[in-house]
Amino acid sequence: MSDTNVGNKTVVTVISKISERPASRDACLVVIYGMELGKRYKVDQPVVVIGRSSKATIQVDHESVSRSHCKLINTGQTIMLRDNDSTNGTYVNDELVDEYVLRDGDFIKIGRCILKFLVGTNIENAYHEEIYRLTTIDGLTQIFNKRYFTETLEREIGRALRYRRHLSLIMFDIDHFKKVNDNYGHLAGDHILRALAAAIKTRIRREDILARYGGEEFAIVLPEIERENAAVFAEKIRMLIERTSFEFESLQIPIRISVGVASLTQELEDCDALVKRADEKLYEAKNSGRNRVIS
After folding, report:
1. Per-residue model confidence (pLDDT) at position 268
2. What is the pLDDT of residue 76?
3. Please, which residues have CB within 8 angstroms of residue 21's CB and are 6 or more apart in sequence?
4. Catalytic residue among 130, 151, 154, 216
5. Weakly modelled stretches of the chain, pLDDT under 70
6. What confidence tens digit (pLDDT) does each residue in 190-238 have?
7. Residue 113 and residue 187: Cα distance in Å, rounded?
8. What is the torsional sign of CA 141, 142, 143, 148?
9. What is the C-alpha to C-alpha distance for residues 236 and 31, in angstroms, rounded to an integer?
10. 3-state DSSP of the chain
11. pLDDT value at residue 30
């Protein structure tokens, strides 16, 4: 791997070992975030151009995408992704790349669109597995989506009531996120959402559920945790985000969150009521100055 500076960007050129290169098998790209979610594009031509132009093999009609943004070169032995000096760059697995030999499962980010590269001997089965995955996972952040969160919270509430266990819910969102998008652009905003989710994902237990509730709002379901300990954990999350260095294209972007905490009680025994209470605490945190936890 070698790094070269182009303007203010660091371009990563990835050179794969022969043994790591994928064999000649069926390959496709699946849209997991943006434009036509779930759409599949076969990579069966020698050259596949991705860009905003109507002449592109795969058209991604968004202002953040260059007319001829990048291309895939299929040699029969490998599939190489090559950036075409695009304005906003081409990312693979969150790394800005110039050339890259694609591997099964790689995430390609072009503007605000994310495509997943699939290659294998049973590409049809892999595609259907990915479509099923999209019913539970948010394509941008790669954490659970709102649908999965709601289904899981209802199930955990039933379990907690049946066995008389504690259950808490944390709801939080990014303070002044609109200013992040306005000042740094939506590509930076998307990067922040992904990085924030990745940072928090490392701090939760296996049984906890971290989900993107919508936009810049997130939720964490905490089985068998009472309100006091949930509030302590929420404060640790708040401090983690405050101390994390979020960087996009060499720019440091300070991020803060406001957090609301609610727990299962006799008055809050269903999903809607628990979410409403946590949301009320979240907005109380925002209205009292932001960057704080209210429980």
Report:
1. 79
2. 86
3. 77, 78, 101
4. 216
5. 1-24
6. 999 999 999 999 999 999 999 999 999 999 999 999 999 999 999 999 9
7. 10
8. positive
9. 35
10. CEEEEECCEEEEECCCCHHHCCCCCEEEEEEEECCCCCCEEECCCCEEEEECCCCCCEECCCCCCCCCCEEEEECCCCEEEEECCCCCCEEECCEEECEEECCCCCEEEECCEEEEEEEECCHHHHHHHHHHHCCCECCCCCCECHHHHHHHHHHHHHHHHHHCCCEEEEEEEECCHHHHHHHHCHHHHHHHHHHHHHHHHCCCCCCCEEEEEECCEEEEEEECCCHHHHHHHHHHHHHHHHHCCCEECCEECCCCEEEEEEECCCCCCCHHHHHHHHHHHHHHHHHCCCCCEEC
11. 98
- The strands making up 99-101's β-sheet, listed across from edge to edge, are 58-59, 47-51, 70-74, 79-83, 99-101
Query: How high is the pLDDT of residue 6?
Result: 47
Site of tokens 């070269």? 4
- In contact, 186 and 140? CB cutoff 8 Å: no
**Catalytic annotation present for 129:** no
Please report where in the chains the tokens 């110039």 appear, as a residue: 98
Which residue's entry shows tokens 């945190």?
A: 285
